[in-house]
Amino acid sequence: LTNSTSAWGLDIDSTGTLWIAGTNSGTLYSYNPAFRKLVNHGHVLSGTNDTSIQDIVVNDRYVYGVTAYGANLFKYNKQTKKREFILPTQKNKQYAKSVVVDKDNKYVYVSSGATAELVQWNLSNNVKTSILPVQYKNETYIEKMKLIDNRYLFTKLYPSEKAGVYDLSKKKLIKEFNSASRGFSGKNEQTNEVFYRYEGFLYEYNVKT
User: Fold this and answer.
1) pLDDT for 27-77, tens place per residue?
2) Which end of the chain is more exposed for a tag (fewer CB within 10 A), N or C?
C-alpha cells in the first residue's frame, strides 16, 4: 500500500470489492479481486490533523470511517469519488475507534475513547445520543461493532473480554458474554448464527433464540 504503513480498517462491499483504510496518512484504497486491481482513492483526511483511519464500514453508496487523533467521522461517496464531510464525533476524545451504519444511511453508530463512549448519530438532524450502558463507562473503548438485521448491535469492549448485544428497537442491552475476537462474523442466513471466538474456541450466538 503506497502512502501507508499499515491498515486498521477493512470491509467488503456487495460487489466483492475490498476497501482498505490506511494509517500514517489516512489514505483509502479499494481492491477488486476479479481484476486484481488496487485503486488509491487518496488522502481522505485532508484538512485535518488526523493521521489514521481506525475503522470503516462500506455499503453500496458510501464508505464511512472514523479517525485518530481527532475522533472524526467521514463519509466518502463511492460514485462521485469525493469525501462528503468529515465531522467530530465528540469533544475531548482522542480517537473514534469503530463505526457501523444502518441500511438507510440515517443512523451511524460510533465508538470513541480513551474513555469509552458509544453514540447513535442521526445524520438527518445531527443529533447524537449516548447509548453506552452505564456498566461499560470504565472501559477504554469499543474496539469493534457489527450491526445484524439492522437491529442487533454487537459490541466488543476493550480492555476487558466482554461483548454485548444491544437491541436498537428495544433500546436496551439484551445479552453480555465473553469474547476474545476483535470482531464478529456476519449472520448465517440459514441458521441465524453470528460467530465469535473465546479462549481458543469458536462460539455462535443465535439472534432468534
Assistant:
1) 999 999 999 999 999 999 999 999 899 999 999 999 999 999 999 999 999
2) C
